[in-house]
Design brief:
single chain; AOC barrel-like; 9 strands; mainly beta; 122 residues; eight-stranded antiparallel β-barrel
């Protein structure tokens, strides 16, 4: 199954002066096929040629009317030569009516809007 929609995201940098990577908390509001909230943490590193990040996000809400929660794992690499982003549902993380969920998500950004496509099986 495939659902699409928009989300708003707020990233709050955390003060980790002793570590070489950046850390941010994530707060999202999903609209569309997914409705609910995502919260999590991101670790990132930027060099002159590339940026990388990993994040764990906990979604709670509804997927096409089915209520529950699941965990998303993000892994991204961005440079002038490539842009790779993998977002997967963590196996076994689904709860409520979303127990057993598997899936992947892609994200695009246009005109200041964040859009998602979520492909899943239940």
């Amino acid at each position: 199954m495939l659902v699409t929609g928009l989300f708003e995201v707020k990233l709050d940098p955390q003060n980790d002066e002793l570590t070489p990577a950046g850390r941010m908390t994530i707060s999202k509001e999903y609209l569309g096929g997914l409705t609910g909230k995502g919260i999590g943490q991101m670790l990132s590193k930027r060099t002159d040629g590339e940026s990388v990040y990993s994040a764990i996000e906990e979604f709670e809400g509804a997927l096409e009317g089915k209520k529950g929660a699941f965990t998303l794992f993000h892994n991204g690499i961005m440079s002038s030569l490539k842009h790779e982003l993998t977002i997967v549902v963590v196996a076994g993380s689904g709860t409520g009516e979303l127990a057993g969920i598997q899936g992947t998500m892609s994200i695009t950004q246009e005109g200041g809007n964040h859009q998602y496509e979520f492909t899943y099986t239940l």
